[in-house]
Amino acid sequence: MFNKFINQMTNANNKEERRQRVGILSGRVGLVSNLFLFVIKLIAGLMSGSISIVTDAMNNLGDSASSVITLFGFRAASKPADKEHPFGHERSEYISGLIISIIIIYVGLQFLSSSFNQIMHPTPLNTSALVFVLLIVSIVIKVLQGQFYRKMAKEIQSNTLQNSAQDSINDVYITTMVLVSSLVETWTGWQIDGYAGGLLSLFIIYSGIQAIRDSIDDLLGKRPSKVEIRQMKDLLDQYDNIVGYHDLLVHSYGPNQTFATIHIEIDDSWNLTRAHHLIDCIEEDFKHKLGVELVCHLDPIAIQNEHDTAIYRQVKAILKDFNLKFHDFKVEHQTILFDIVLPDNPQLTDDALFMQIEQKIHEQIGNYEVKIIFDRLDLLKEV
Q1: pTM assigned to the model
Q2: In this structure, are 272 and 340 located in the same domain?
Q3: Cα 355 to the center of its chain, rounded Å
Q4: Residue 281 above 90 pLDDT?
Q5: Where among 220, 244, 271 does a domain terminate?
Q6: DSSP letters of 259-316?
Q7: Which of 86, 130, 164, 358 has the fewest C-beta atoms lying within 10 Å of its C-beta?
């Protein structure tokens, strides 16, 4: 029943429109539920005089503000590309996530101060059965809210909604701690409300810092996952008529705006028409199967030339001793040119490595001029 309702509410003609509808629905549900939680917790906090309950209530008010920002973020992200923003506006979703994180930290700092005052000047609580009932109801609502956010985040692969889901689960722990501290103080008389509020405030601040880090990573542009790289590599491996590929670079301008470039090695005896048809097929496969806008660069390789092939094998054997991969191999007169894919933490400097490789080539192949480009950006080296 629940899944059917969600599908009806978010039914759309395309992936981008569905993403917008899911995001907006999530923002509206979050806004209404968090405002309701704020009201009942504020009532419980004022009735009991508990700083930890009031802190928890204000945390839900901050969640309501976050839901409003989520609404605006998804609306802005759905705007089509324009002259000033040719790659669209989908990173607006990341900006909304960053603003939400800042609000979370601000709320945490404000109530850390209030909790400290409660510790220094404790006042007894005035709890009742109604206060405990309100807290239990709020825990149930937050559990349901977290499940809803998690389903929506999975539906559209949204880090913003995933953060909201985690925040809801955190709130379950927070309100449970508030409930337990209130029960302890009611039953034992130990005035621990300020300490509970302080712990909650620190937890809120920590979650805000974590969320800021995730949002900044998205805005700066983070590397694709190994699963995504493996999918691209598996797709390229289906083309038996290419010699090889390298220098994969991926750029993301939002959840549905991924661009990539790659160098495709082909037999240099091919004519331009055949080569162009091949890369058109590869780019079309990336678009329809992976949703990636790929641009291919052609690298002709002289695989039919026996002299060059013999040198290639000798260079390959030399570099194997260094545990290095290479590409873009060419022999031009008395010059050998190639790129080396460096590991993340090379043991030698570029100059020292070049000198050792050059010496090996002179000893084993001949007096060739050696030109090497050291490549650190190729994502394929990890898979």
Answers
A1: 0.57
A2: yes
A3: 40
A4: yes
A5: 220
A6: EEEEEEEEETTS-HHHHHHHHHHHHHHIIIII-EEEEEEEEEE-TT-HHHHHHHHHHH
A7: 86
Task: Return the residue matching tokens 């054997």.
Answer: 317
Same domain, 278 and 329: yes
pLDDT in tens, 289-301: 888 889 998 888 8
Checking DSSP bridges between strand 369-375 and strand 335-341, what pairing results, if any? parallel
Q: Which of 220, 254, 285 is the last residue of a domain?
A: 220
CATH number at 18 reads 1.20.1510.10
Give just the sign of the alpha carbon dihedral 167, 173, 174, 176.
positive
How many structural domains is the chain composed of?
Answer: 2
Rounded Cα distance, 280 and 282, in Å:
6
Q: How far is CA 118 from the centre of its chain?
A: 39
pLDDT digits (tens, 9 = 90+) for 94-143: 777 777 778 778 777 877 877 787 777 766 666 667 777 888 888 898 89
* Same domain, residue pair 234 and 368: yes
